[in-house]
Design brief:
alpha/beta, 6-stranded parallel beta sheet, 6-stranded mixed beta sheet, 42% helix, elongated
């Protein structure tokens, strides 16, 4: 820094202000300092600056799987929002969702020097009384049923599901079958519970759910099971990938969508509009989830206090060509 200051003819303090992006430096001086930095190959020492300021401008992210659309898109949104705030993201995947693994992940993130942590907890962990997060770490939890113990951000799973089921009932279907996600998934449970509750409220028969694992292949297997049933005229799939497999199975078994069977998905992945037929689905605003996660965790960093409770990001039903009134009998 002293070499840069001598070459640019300024003080070391001015070099520091330029390298940290602070105001109070004229544009002419700033350009002279930047030119000197370039000529000398000077780069600010981020570790030294972090020690001096007491912050690392890095957010740690713990996730238990990157195989689902929701987790990947939430992570992408977190990284984008963090970058807009001048923060980097350190990702730490955890293979086995246990208390010991969670503690180990927080310990490793501490060694990697992060200011706060976002946990994408899509599986049933924070419901367990034995699992707790370190009290001294600023934490926001995404996609979980953590209740009032932590700051939680999630999409409105219940509202999106109710809109999907009611849309099919309003079209005239007697009931709606459900292609559910894996039992250990919080989001899958929320969607299944809302599907069942909506049918009960409307006084409709509740069919036994068919269980998948979020993959298109599991949706295909479920579709082979549902296709022979003439009483199955509408299916709500817990995500778009399973809906894709379901569409293939129905097509192979001669059940035309939406003439014979209406199908609704959940997520609104970018490809859902290119399915055959284009898929009616529930849109999740992952960008807003990521923004609120970053906003919440940085508020904790700056204010030193967490706001407990859950923030729900609204969902909306996107109508395309995979739903229609039931076939006339």
């Amino acid at each position: 820094m002293a070499d840069v200051a001598r070459l640019a003819g300024v003080s070391s303090q001015t070099v520091s202000r330029v390298s940290n992006g602070y105001a109070g430096v004229t544009e002419e001086t700033r350009l002279e300092v930047l030119a000197a930095m370039k000529e000398l190959g000077y780069r600010p020492n981020s570790a030294a600056r972090a020690l001096k300021r007491g912050e690392f401008r890095t957010i740690g992210v713990i996730t238990f799987t990157l195989s689902t659309t929701g987790n990947v898109r939430t992570l992408e949104a977190i990284a984008t929002s963090a970058a807009q705030e001048g923060y980097a993201v350190t990702l730490l995947p955890v293979a086995v969702p246990t208390q010991d693994e969670v503690r180990g992940a927080f310990s490793r993130l501490g060694e990697l020097a992060v200011d706060a942590v976002i946990v994408i907890m899509e599986v049933h962990l924070l419901d367990a009384a034995t699992l707790s997060l370190p009290p001294h770490v600023q934490v926001v939890v995404a996609d979980s049923d953590a209740g009032d113990r932590y700051t939680v951000v999630d999409t409105d799973q219940t509202g999106g599901t109710r809109a999907a089921v009611r849309h099919l009932l309003d079209l005239g279907h007697r009931t709606v079958w459900h292609l559910a996600g894996p039992a250990e998934s919080f989001a899958a449970q929320r969607r299944a519970d809302a599907w069942r509750a909506t049918l009960v409220e409307e006084g409709r028969f509740v069919p036994p759910p068919v269980r998948g694992d979020w993959s298109a292949e599991s949706g295909y297997r479920a579709g082979l099971e549902l296709a022979p049933r003439d009483d199955c005229t509408a299916v709500f799939a817990a995500n778009d990938q399973m809906a894709l497999g379901l569409l293939r199975a129905l097509h192979e078994r001669g059940r035309e969508v939406p003439r014979d069977v209406s199908v609704i998905g959940f997520d609104d992945i970018p490809e859902s509009g290119s399915f055959l037929p284009p898929l009616t689905t529930v849109h999740q605003d992952f960008a807003e989830v990521g923004r609120r996660c970053v906003e919440g965790v940085l508020r904790q960093v700056r204010q030193g206090a967490a706001e407990r409770g859950t923030t729900l990001v609204p969902t909306r039903l996107v109508l395309r060509d995979s739903t229609a009134p039931p076939p006339s009998r």
